[in-house]
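sanity check this record:
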Amino acid sequence: MSKMGTKCVQGGYTPKNGEPRQIPIIQSTTFKYDTSEDMGKLFDLEADGYFYTRLANPTSDYVAKKICEMEGGTAAMLTSSGMAASFLAVFNICSCGDHFVSSSAIYGGTYNLFAVTLKRMGIDVTFVSPTASEEEINSAFRPNTKLLFGETIANPALDVLDIEKFAHVAHKNGVPLIIDNTFPTPVNCRPFLWGADIVTHATTKYMDGHGSAVGGAIVDSGKFDWTKYPDKYPGLCTPDESYHGITYTERFGIEGAYITKAVAQLMRDLGVAPAPMNSFLLNLGLESLHVRIKKHCENALAVAKFLEANENVAWVKYPGLDSSPDKPLVDKYLKDGTCGVVSFGIVGGREAASKFMKSLKVIAIETHVADARSCCLHPATATHRQLSDKELEECGVSPDLIRVSVGLEDAEDLIADIDAALKNI
C-alpha cells in the first residue's frame, strides 16, 4: 500500500478466507497452550505469540502495525495513554543518572512528566526553545545525554519544530530524536522522512477522533544504530538478565530492538497496556483519519482568519495562516495541512478570556483536543495550572491564551458562536 488513505483503511490487518473483515476484538486476558514448552518459548522471546494481554494482544498489535505502516516505521506498540507512550519512549533508554534534552514548547503534562516526575527517578532534563539555534541546542548536551525530544506542532503553543535541525544536532551527538507527532498525525507529517528516529502519539486525539478511547503509540523508524553506542545504551546492547541474557540488538536487530525491549521489559513491569476494546475503537477512528483531518484543518483556518480580523482579539496563532512566523516550516514539513487547533488571546486578558468561554454555546469547555466536536480550554488554569509563570512562558503559554480545538461542525456555526461570545465580553 503506497497511499495514506489506503493505509488508514486497510493497513495492519488482512483477513484470510472466511475470517472477520473488521479487526476482531480479542477480549481475553490469557491464551491457552498445549504444553509448557510451547509457552516457555514465548517467555524466552524465541517464538511469536501471546500469553498475557498485559504484554501484548492481537487486537492491539493489528492496530499498532497499521500506525507503523502509516508512519513508515519498522516496529510499533500501543500503550494505555499518550502520557504512557511519552514515558516509555524516554524510560526505555534513560536510567537513573541519565540526562536528556527537550524542546520547552510541549504539552503541559509532558513538561511536568519530564521536569518533575522523571527527576524524582534520577533522570534530568534540560529544556531548550523550539527556535533555538543548533549551537544553543548543542550546548545543552552533556556526556550522559541519551536523547532529544520535541513535538511536531506544540500543544498548545502551536510552534512548528524544525525537525531536520533537531535531528542534525541529535545525530551529531550520537542520540536519537524522539518526536511527538500527535497534532499533525502521519497524514500531514511523517517525521521519519526528516530525520526523526522514534515517533510517539496520543492516539486519544485525532487518531481516535471521537473522544471514545484513551491511548498512545510508539513507532520506531529502525534507522538509529544503537550498536554504535553500546556504552550509552547498555539496555539494548548488553544482555538482559531478566530474559535469560538476551541482547536485544543481537536478537532483533536495530529495526526491532527498541520496541521489543519496551514491550518485553517495560510493559511487563509497568503494565500500561491498552484494553483490546480501546484498540478496536482506535482502529475505527484511523479508518476515517485521512478524511477527517482535512476538514479539521479547513475549519480551523476559517476560524483563525475570522479571529485575526476581529478587533476584540489581541493575537492569533495558527500555523496554517499566511501571517504565521512558522510559515516557512509549514511549507517544508506540513504541505498537506497542519492541525485543527487554534490558539488566541482576547483583549482584556485572563478575565475577558474567562467571560468569553462562559458565553460559548456550541463550543464546549473541555480538557480535550482533536475531537469531532469543537471544544476550548484556558490552559493557564487547566492543563498547565501546575506550572509557574516562568514555566508557562517557556512553554509558550500566556495567561490569556485560549486553545480552541476546531471540530467537524459547519465552520459558519462555529464562527457565529465565537462572534457572539466575543461581543458578550
In short: The CA atoms of residues 188 and 337 lie 6 Å apart. The mean pLDDT is 95.
